[in-house]
Design brief:
This protein is an alpha/beta fold. The chain has a domain of 124 residues: 3-Layer(aba) Sandwich (Rossmann fold). The protein is built from ten helices and ten strands. A hairpin with a 2-residue loop joins strand 4 and strand 5. The radius of gyration is 17 Å and the shape is globular. The structure holds adenosine-5'-diphosphate (ADP) and magnesium ion. Adenosine-5'-diphosphate (ADP) binds next to helix 1.
Length: 232
């Protein structure tokens, strides 16, 4: 579904991710794990069209999308949820959701689907986004991404700023998305949660993929256990 080959990207001529290759098959949940500064956000931004890669290739459903702008990538079926969420705090839940369908009109069926998936958003549809809890804002960010009716959802550290219980809830919501047939790519520092959720993963260190495997294989890897699971 998504195939990234030899990707490099960075800022002002300095690559911070280099020679990154990975793929996501339809229906899979795939994680990119790495500590703060490893290059996860830079990698995702260059995949979803928010940052132009300096080399390498991104293919989606068989077509090259390298360097294609973000708005077009959304229309091809890839929605991105940034770690900082980027909601409009003074707008209501419903208005923020409607913007996820932009430039199209919000589809009533899709809106209902999102409300079904996140009843808390339905209860708060007229509340301003900025007055909601961190967990609810994360739900809204995911809900807004779903309004574009994606086949692949790309989430950058969905647990950012969430207390442990809410972080676990965020992953429960992602499991519900998978059950509905969505393909998920997620970047995380909170590795245990991502690992329990994902089928496979890649470890990004200093801008390069160091190792990869099924989640079970990675959970057994002594280096991964030491560095990311706190097990010695
Ligand atoms: N806008 C930017 N301009 C310059 N350097 C940046 C910018 N964003 C990130 N970086 C640098 O790129 C590296 C990788 O950052 P990032 O992709 O945010 O990693 P992660 O998401 O894994 O924490 C870091 O050294 C960071 O300082
Ligand atoms: Mg990041």
């Amino acid at each position: 579904m998504l195939e990234v080959t030899g990707l490099a990207a960075g800022y002002e001529g300095n690559d911070v991710v280099e020679d990154v290759s990975f793929h996501v098959d339809p229906g899979e949940a795939v994680m990119i794990i790495g500590s703060n500064g490893a290059g996860k956000t830079t990698l995702f931004r260059s995949v979803v069209g928010l940052l132009a890669p300096s080399s390498g290739e991104v293919r989606y459903e068989g077509a090259g999308i390298t360097g294609v702008p973000a708005q077009r990538i959304v229309r091809l079926g890839i929605s991105f949820v940034p770690a900082e969420r980027r909601l409009f705090p003074r707008m209501t839940v419903q208005e923020n959701l409607a913007l996820g369908a932009y430039p199209g009109r919000p589809d009533p069926g899709t809106t209902e689907l999102v409300m079904d998936l996140f009843p808390r958003l339905a209860e708060r549809r007229r509340q301003r986004a900025g007055t909601m809890s961190g967990g609810e804002q994360q739900m809204l960010a995911v809900g807004r991404a779903l309004m574009a009716d994606p086949r692949l959802i790309v989430l950058d550290e969905p647990t950012t700023g969430l207390a442990p219980k809410l972080a676990a809830e965020a992953y429960e919501a992602l499991s519900a998305l998978r059950d509905r047939g969505l393909t998920v790519l997620v970047a995380e520092q909170q590795v245990p949660l991502a690992m329990a959720f994902s089928d496979r993963g890649y470890v990004l260190e200093n801008g390069r993929i160091r190792t990869q495997g099924t989640s079970a294989e990675l959970a057994d890897d002594p280096d991964v256990r030491r560095a990311y699971l706190g097990i010695t």
